[in-house]
């Protein structure tokens, strides 16, 4: 059992490490978009797409970088007492807090799937029961949701990225849970 936990930890940490390292460069994409926005507003006609695209890139940067941040332990903690605790007490405290975080992420993931299903054109009450473009009752199925701005981009791509990011965060939290269990059982992580 502990061997399976260690294998899961290695696999999830490797995936989130790679995704996080790629997501780190999203800040340069964001800077490029904002630079173009400034230049176009100063010298040309302002581009309609720049500010909303900057928001989308920032969401992707933040959501996809979150699991890597958890993995590195660079998330914010109240370190007033935590730093003085023993490894065992830290593991117990982290175990309880990560269970709360897993519950919260499950709720967020359900909401993200529901919102993405809506943006893809499904207006039902259960996002996991979509039947591939079938008209159910009087509901309208298949019209894509767009932003209400002048640029009017489709919203499903960024919502899909949010699903991927939240799923990776959930996997990373389970990995952290397993690490805490292994620390409590005095097994190497």
UniProtKB/TrEMBL annotation:
* UniProt keyword annotation of Nuclease present: no
Its predominant location is membrane
GO CC annotations, alphabetized: plasma membrane
> Which Pfam family, any one, appears in the UniProt record?
DctQ
User: Keywords in UniProt for this one?
Assistant: Cell inner membrane, Cell membrane, Membrane, Transmembrane, Transmembrane helix, Transport
InterPro entries in UniProt: DctQ, TRAP_DctQ
Q: What does this protein do?
A: Part of the tripartite ATP-independent periplasmic (TRAP) transport system.
| Descriptive protein name | TRAP transporter small permease protein
